[in-house]
Amino acid sequence: MLQAEVRENITRAVAAALETDENRYEADYIDGIADQYRALVIKEIWRVDKRINSIWTQQFFAEYSADLQDNENFVRFACPPTISIDKKRDGFFFVGSIDGIEAYRKVESRATLSNANNHRITKLNNRVIKALWSDGYWEIYGAPLIKDLRVDGIFSKPTDVPTFNPEFDDYPVDDNTLVVMKRMIREEMGVMAATPLDTISDSSDKVKK
To answer: What is the mean pLDDT of the chain?
Structure first.
């Protein structure tokens, strides 16, 4: 389903929940709601079923940029963020070689990386390429000559992936997930629309008459 079709579905859901005209909403606003509720529904599906649908994932190909390199210990690549599946799991499922053959070892923190490098056993296997996610960048350790990187994941904003063409590529959501997204939008936004605005500043929920 193309992004325009998803946008049309979400627009109808928002308009129904807020009892407004569908034509009043800008595309960017609706797309933001689609991205937000897509993430919420995916996390809920994972919580209940522990299942990831491959349709939700995209591939991002990062290219080497000399401007990003300021540390001789690793090679840095810019990368869009993913959603968080739960408190322990992010939305990155593969970080490795462009051909998808070699997956680099993801490390959770610099402390984990340091412990691995200093451990009497793992330090003997420093040839293993390691990947650390930090503030919008992947830091690749153990491959000083690396020039490109492949990352598979459920990205927070699908349009941040350069290879995604909204005119030809399907928005990464399946029909069943979209149905749940629309239902959640109608329920949550409908509740907000039905709740009177509290105009009295007295730490209560009273409405000024």
So the answer is: 89
| 76 neighbors 64 (Cβ within 8 angstroms) | no
- 40 within some domain: yes
Supply the pTM of this predicted model.
Answer: 0.85
**Cα–Cα distance between 158 and 56 in angstroms, integer?**
9
Identify the DSSP state of 83.
-
Domain count, the chain: 2
Distance CA 9, CA 11 (A): 5
The domain containing residue 127 runs over which residues?
A: 58-153
The tens digit of pLDDT for each residue in 45-70 reads 999 999 999 999 999 999 999 999 99
Give the end-to-end CA distance of the chain in Å, rounded to a whole number. Answer: 47
The verdict on residue 209 lying in a domain is no
Looking at the domain assignment, is residue 12 inside a domain?
yes
Task: Classify residue 71: in a domain, yes or no.
Answer: yes
Report the DSSP pairing between strands 130-134 and 105-107.
Answer: parallel
